[in-house]
Amino acid sequence: MFEGVEGYHFWDDAFGNIIFSLTEIPIDKVLLDYGSEIRESYRMSGAPGSWAGDLGSASAILGAKSIRGFQLSSSYGLSGWILAKEAAVKS
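^ that's the sequence the OP posted. Answer follows.
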């Protein structure tokens, strides 16, 4: 469960995936690894938010909001990234 979500993208959802890991990663890594995707999404639709309009200052803007980066992996298929304040795994 995520709170304070500022952006995310999931792909290859097989509708029955078993989550393998949710790892916290630096915001800068999310912006570096997925920056072109974020930039294009912002250009096309304004998503994921106004911070995406300038990726050079996005890390500072998100950091000031206490946003953290997360990477999700599954045993089969589903993967993605999330920028959010909090993440909790509930069983």
